[in-house]
Write a structure and sequence with these properties.
The protein contains 20 helices and 15 strands. The chain has helices at residues 55-63, 95-117, 129-144, 149-154, 163-177, 183-208, 217-222, 251-274, 281-300, 304-321, 324-327, 329-345, 347-362, 507-518, 535-538, 544-549, 564-572, 574-595, 603-621, 632-652; strands spanning 35-38, 71-74, 88-91, 122-124, 385-391, 394-399, 402-408, 416-420, 428-431, 437-440, 448-454, 460-466, 469-475, 482-484, 490-491. Helix 1 (55-63) packs antiparallel against helix 2 (95-117).
C-alpha cells in the first residue's frame, strides 16, 4: 500500500522501505535505470511532484522578470578613472531580481534537503550534470582569483549577475530537471509563464502607445519605497518616448527573452487547433492573442537581435519538422497572417531598425546616428588616428599612417620638440587666431593645431587639436605626461590591441568596435576569468582614440560586450564557456533526436518542441545580446523544463 508524504511524493512499498538510505543500483528495471541516484521513498519518475514543490521553479521561471524596485547602494567607484558617478548609486531593474534568484535557489536547496530527510531524494540519470559541475567550478575559481572580489561576487552596477547569481542559475536548473516529472508539472511552469507574459505584453503595449504605466503616479509609487513618494514627480527614466522596455531595463532584452516565448506560444496554438472541436475556441483565441501580443512587443522593441533569433527559429523548425509543417498549414497560415498584420501596424518601428542593422553589417553610411555617437556634422571628413600613446615626457601620435612625437619639458611647459617618424625635427608657425596656438609646418599634419594652456589651479597643459577635437595633456614636473579626459582625470594612453572590424566599427550598432577590443582580451582568460560580471573593469576604457575613430563620445563607458559568450569568457573563463556550450549542445542533440520525425499529439510534446525552438533562438540572439538577471531565470527555467520533457519522452521512445 502506498502513502503520500507531506509534499505529495508517493512512498514505496514496505519491502522497499527496508533500504532506507541506500541508492538503487539496479539498471534492469525501467524505473531504476532512469535514476542516477534515488532513495528508498523516492517517487516513480513518472509521478507528478506536488504543486508546493513546484513553487521555486515557478517563481524563478515566470515571476522574477516582473520585479522592478528602487535600490540605493554604494560601490567604490572613485578608484576608476573613467567614471564620476560617485560611490552612491541607484537602480531599479536588477538588484531585487538578483535577490529573488538567490532566494529561489536557497528554497530549492531546502526542498532538496527535505527530500533527503524523507528518503524521497532522487537524481535523474543525465549527462547534463558534468558540464554544469565544470561550469560551477570555474565560476568559483574565477571568483577566488579575482582582483575585484566584491564586484565578482555580486556583479557589476545595474547588472548584479555575479558569482552568487551564476551559481544560483545552476542550482535552479538542477532543481527544475529533478522536479518536473509529469505533464501537470509542465503546466505549472507554462501557464504562469503565459500569464506573466500577457501582463508584460500589456505593459509593453502601454509603453509603445506613450502611456507608460511606470510613468504614472501609481506606477512610480509601486516601484519606490514610501520615503520617496513625496519625490516621485522627479522620477524619470532615460527611455525615449514609446520605447518598449517592459521590466527588463533595455529594449534589447525585450526581444531577447521573447525569442524564448514566441515559438512556445505558437506551438501551443497549433496544438490547440489540432485538437479540433475538443478544444474550446477561447483557448485557441487565447494562445493566438498571446502570440500576437508578444510579436507586437518583439517588433516594437526595435531590436534586431530578436529578429535574428526568430529567423534562426524558423530555419531550424523547417529543417527539423520537414513534412510535419504541411500538416499544420492552417494554424501556421493564421500565425503568419497575424504576424504580417502586426508587422504592417509597426512598420515605422521595425523598418529603421532593420535598415540600420543592414547598414551596420554592410559597413555603409547611416543617416541616423546612434545615441552613442557625437553630433559633429564633419565627423565623416575627419582623418583616422592610428594611436595616441604617452611615454615619459613624450606624446606619440600616428595620424593616417604618419607618426609624430611631441616631447614636452615639465621644467619649461611652454617648450615643445616635434619630430616625425624618421626622427626629423618639424617646425611650427604661430596662428593669429586662436591666440597662442601654432600649426605644424608639414602637410601630413596640416589638421593639427597645438598650443600650451594653464588652468585655474596652475596646472600646465599641452593641447593638440586634431580635426577640431582637442586632446589635452597635463605637463606636471616630476610626473610623466598624462591625457586629461573629459571627466578631469589624468590617464596614461597606450596602443590598444584590436582584432577585426577596422573599416566597419559601426557593425551591429557599434558592436564591431566593442568586439574588436574584446577579442584580444580573451587570450588572458582562456582558462580562468577575471571574475563574474567584471567585464567593465577590464575593458580598455582608456581607448579614447578608438572611440574617436568610431565617432563615439569619448567619455562613454563600455560595460558589456553585447555578446553573452564573450561576456562569460572574460568573466568566468574559456573553460566555463565551453562547459556551457557543452550543456546546451547536449540538450540540442537530445531534442533533435527526440523530435525528429515525431508525430505530435500531447501538450507535453508540443511544449517540448516550442521550448527547444525558443532555446535555439535565444542562443543565436545571445551572439548580439547580453546575459542579464532579467532574462536568464526564464531561460534556465525553460531549459530545465525542456530537459525534463525530453527525459519524460525518452521513457516512451528510447533515444
Amino acid at each position: 500500500m502506498k502513502n503520500k508524504n507531506k509534499l505529495g511524493n508517493k512512498a514505496t512499498s514496505s519491502k522497499q522501505q527496508g533500504n532506507t538510505h541506500m541508492p538503487h543500483k539496479s539498471v534492469t528495471s525501467g524505473r531504476k535505470s532512469d535514476y542516477l541516484y534515488s532513495m528508498s521513498m523516492a517517487p516513480r519518475i513518472d509521478e507528478a511532484s506536488h504543486w508546493f514543490q513546484m513553487l521555486p521553479a515557478l517563481f524563478f521561471t515566470a515571476c522574477i522578470i516582473t520585479i522592478v524596485r528602487m535600490h540605493d547602494y554604494q560601490r567604490p567607484m572613485s578608484q576608476f578613472f573613467w567614471t564620476n558617478s560617485g560611490n552612491d548609486l541607484t537602480e531599479f531593474f536588477s538588484y531585487y531580481k538578483m535577490v529573488a534568484i538567490v532566494i529561489c535557489a536557497v528554497l530549492a536547496l531546502v526542498f532538496l534537503l527535505y527530500r533527503v530527510f524523507t528518503q524521497s531524494f532522487f537524481i535523474k540519470r543525465s549527462s547534463y550534470y558534468i558540464p554544469m559541475g565544470v561550469y560551477m567550478l570555474f565560476v568559483m575559481i574565477s571568483h577566488g582569483l579575482s582582483e575585484y572580489k566584491d564586484f565578482s561576487l555580486w556583479g557589476w552596477n545595474d547588472r548584479f549577475e555575479g558569482t552568487v547569481t551564476l551559481l544560483a542559475y545552476m542550482v535552479m536548473l538542477f532543481f527544475v530537471i529533478n522536479t518536473i516529472n509529469h505533464e501537470r508539472n509542465v503546466k505549472w511552469i507554462i501557464y504562469p509563464t503565459a500569464a506573466v507574459s500577457f501582463l508584460l505584453s500589456l505593459l509593453g503595449l502601454s509603453q509603445a502607445l506613450n502611456h507608460d504605466f511606470f510613468q504614472t503616479s501609481l506606477g512610480k509609487k509601486l516601484i519606490t519605497p514610501t520615503w520617496f513618494w513625496d519625490q516621485v514627480d522627479s522620477l524619470t527614466f532615460t527611455f525615449k518616448n514609446r520605447e518598449i522596455y517592459q521590466t527588463v531595463y533595455n529594449i534589447n532584452y525585450v526581444s531577447f527573452y521573447l525569442t524564448l516565448l514566441l515559438p512556445l506560444f505558437g506551438l501551443l496554438f497549433i496544438h490547440s487547433v489540432s485538437k479540433g472541436k475538443t478544444e474550446p475556441f477561447w483557448k485557441k483565441l487565447l494562445w493566438a492573442g498571446l502570440f500576437g501580443l508578444n510579436m507586437y512587443n518583439l517588433i516594437g522593441s526595435q531590436s534586431s537581435g530578436g529578429f535574428l533569433g526568430m529567423f534562426a527559429v524558423v530555419v531550424i523548425a523547417i529543417i527539423l519538422l520537414n513534412k510535419t509543417i504541411i500538416n499544420w498549414w492552417k494554424p501556421l497560415i493564421s500565425l503568419l497572417i497575424l504576424t504580417l498584420i502586426i508587422g504592417g501596424i509597426t512598420y515605422e518601428r521595425w523598418m529603421p531598425e532593420l535598415t540600420g542593422a543592414a547598414h551596420g553589417v554592410l559597413g555603409t553610411e547611416q543617416t541616423n546616428k546612434t545615441e552613442t555617437k557625437t553630433d559633429s556634422d564633419s565627423s565623416s571628413d575627419r582623418g583616422y588616428i592610428d594611436y595616441i600613446s604617452t611615454e615619459g615626457n613624450d606624446i606619440n601620435i600616428s595620424y593616417e599612417g604618419n607618426a609624430v612625437t611631441f616631447t614636452t619639458y615639465p621644467q619649461n611647459p611652454i617648450a615643445i620638440k616635434i619630430t616625425d617618424g624618421d626622427g626629423k625635427d618639424l617646425n611650427i608657425t604661430p596662428l593669429e587666431s586662436p591666440s597662442n596656438t601654432f600649426r605644424i609646418d608639414d602637410e601630413r599634419f596640416a589638421n593639427f593645431i597645438i598650443g600650451p594652456a594653464q588652468d585655474s589651479a596652475g596646472i600646465n597643459y599641452f593641447i593638440i587639436s586634431i580635426d577640431d577635437t582637442e586632446w589635452t595633456f597635463a605637463i606636471i614636473e616630476g610626473q610623466d605626461v598624462r591625457y586629461r579626459n573629459t571627466l578631469g582625470n589624468l590617464v596614461p594612453l597606450s596602443k590598444v590591441p584590436a582584432i577585426g572590424w577596422t573599416d566597419n566599427q559601426d557593425f551591429g550598432s557599434g558592436r564591431g568596435y566593442i568586439w574588436s577590443r574584446t577579442l584580444p582580451m580573451m587570450k588572458s582568460t582562456a582558462l580562468i576569468g577575471h571574475g563574474a560580471d567584471t567585464y567593465c573593469i577590464y575593458f580598455p576604457q582608456n581607448d579614447y582614440v578608438g572611440k574617436y575613430n568610431a565617432d563615439w563620445k569619448l567619455n562613454i563607458v563600455t560595460d558589456k560586450p553585447h555578446n553573452m559568450y564573450l561576456d562569460a569568457w572574460i568573466g568566468t573563463g574559456g573553460i566555463s564557456v565551453l562547459a556551457l556550450c557543452a550543456l546546451w549542445l547536449i540538450y540540442i542533440a537530445q531534442s533533435i533526436r527526440c523530435f525528429w520525425k515525431r508525430e505530435f499529439h500531447t501538450f507535453t510534446e508540443y511544449t517540448g518542441l516550442g521550448i527547444f525552438l525558443g532555446i535555439c533562438g535565444f542562443l543565436v540572439s545571445g551572439f548580439v545580446d547580453d546575459s542579464t538577471v532579467s532574462v536568464m531565470p526564464m531561460f534556465y527555467g525553460l531549459l530545465g523544463t525542456g530537459i525534463a520533457i525530453n527525459i519524460m519522452l525518452k521513457k516512451g521512445q528510447r533515444i
